[in-house]
Amino acid sequence: MPNYDLLRQNPFFLDDEHVAWVKDTLENMTKEEKIGHLFCFANYGWEEAELARVLDHYKLGAIMGRGNDFEKVWKSNKFIQEHAKIPLLIAANFEAGGDGIIKKALKTYEDGTPYKYPQCEGTNVGPNLMIGATDDPEFAAKQGYVCAKEGLAVGANWAFAPVIDIDKNWRNPIMATRLYSSKDKLVADCGRAYTIAAQKEGMAVSIKHFPGDGVDERDQHLVISINDLSCEEWDATYGAAYKASIDAGALSLMVGHIMQPAYSRKLIPGIADKDIMPATLAPELLNGLLRGKLGFNGVLVTDASTMNGFCSAMDRKDAVPGCIAAGCDIFLFTQNVDEDYEFMCAGVENGTITPERLDEAVMRTLGMKAALKLPDKKAAGTLIPPIEEAAKIVGCKEFRDIEKEVADRSVTLVKNNENILPIDRSKIKRIYLYPIAAGRDFGSTDAELGGYMKEKLEAEGFEVEVFKVPEGREGAQRRAEDMKASYDLLLYVVNLATYSNQTVVRITWSQPMGFNCPNYIKAIPTAFISFANPYHLVDVPRIPTFINAYKFKEATVNAVIDKMLGRSPFKGVNPVDPFCGKWDTRL
Asked: What is the DSSP track for 202-236?
């Protein structure tokens, strides 16, 4: 029998009535229902018939919503909760705002009629590095508040956030703007602030990615990555950040496919290198370090089980039940739905997952549902508000104002070595614009980025020409004197965001011979705006004027222009080292 007294403690704090609900629900569940409660699938916008089939066949305990338009998300989540016997945890990546589940609104329905809710787009308050650049954890609290309010409006109740990883390596290809800072205390304070604010509204958090990303320069989506700090270093940094959110009552924690060799070796003396596992499969980290030393009593969910960091650790038939046996409570996603489900069932039947471990995992998940008052809300019919009420919440003026405030407070002037900022309009009128983009998201191609910025700058009265790769070869570039006579400012605008499944995020210059390289910095005033990755100085070290804006969106573009023109002062504080530890990047 599981220890139900754990549910009276942090983070659940259940009263007798809700402990009784967990106990009664668990003891009346079939083995198949318990196994189903170990899974969290991804919902990419399934139609109701498919949702019903999935819920009935697999008896899920949780589902994660991927980004979709407001009405589809609301209707899907409403159907899920009305159809399910036990209310589901409905998760989303609320790392930056409600846009973690509510993406850009439609303009029309499929039949061509105008969309009824055109204003309902999830607010992007972050990303996290923008919050860090404000140097004020109160903005992480506002971020958590917006995420919770917008998520709850469409029926979500579980945030896969906050990210409390720490930037220890500028070469890391995925974390960059997803984390708050390289400053240990700021990360801990921001994670705690988000946790308290979101859970106050009724949204469970999942602090991530234990034991901590940001040290390795590799991506756990592609390899088993490593947090190679010593135990003492880990305790003072990542450990302190996790402890801050744990003590603040974080209901769940996401476990990464990341090794922490120092602690594995400390907790299992003599362990062979080949036997050191990522945290998702390492009971010494989950039970000895996390539940033991740090005292975490909440729900443990794996990071996506489709990542190579999980897939390459051991044979999948062993890994699927193995992560639950090691101490995880919920298995996120599947590589092959039926096969992974069969692997989990086999693990229960062959004793890899003992009856006691199965019951404990399900008990904690039910405990989180009770802590969120999901059974009470289901009984009262209030798991999701009416769509008219939800439409008043998502993308409302209050949240957009918070987004604008964060943008104003975060845009960071990294270098102004030639004092060209604020721009003197009597000297700078003609701008040559170099757009560099990655081919993803808003302003994601060079042409889109350049066109948008050209329009914005021309609205301010500047003459703007956008760089185009010339036809020709070495020796065919424009005369330097012609460049000097034609332009007052060369402006680089760059949107190279970090994403999963990349091995590096660096600037690739145009061929032949880097035609768009900053070749004229000694002859023409030159400035660089990064709207994503904060580390581009490593590739343009002698650029004299450099701005970090962290996210390409209207709020940050407007803030950058205001500050470049002197209408608003630069207020951002470097949340990381944009100079990448190199002396020449400061020149």
From this structure: T-EEEEEEET-SSSSSS-TTTS-EE----HHHHII
